[in-house]
Amino acid sequence: MTGAAGRNGIDLDTAARQEVEEAERIFSDRTGKLPTVEYSDAHEFDIDGRPAVHYTAHVTDISPDTEYDPGSARFDVVATPGFATAEVMVLIIELHQNVPGAQGAEVVEGVIASIRPS
């Protein structure tokens, strides 16, 4: 699953960190039981000469609310300067693991490599 959001008034690193830290809330269960989350260090890189920062959250011990919920997940966030309506563009990639048909990390890397200014 992928999505994008805009942020104003904060720098790239702060925008990416705030979004990746949402993994804990996103993967908590209905009773509020929190999963285990390990965060990567920031990975800074360029997208067509523009700065970007990437964080990954590896989420385990996800309590299933339904039989389709994953036991673990990867949650990636990339922030880069935005255009038009926001100062910062935040790309979010949620990759469920331990479910039938789950995609590997190469999907995340492919999505990130395809980011281009428009």
From TrEMBL:
Superkingdom: Bacteria
Domain DUF8017: 2-117
Pfam families to which the protein is assigned, alphabetical: DUF8017
InterPro entries reported in the protein's UniProt record: DUF8017
Protein name stated in the entry: DUF8017 domain-containing protein
Organism expressing this protein natively: Rhodococcus rhodnii
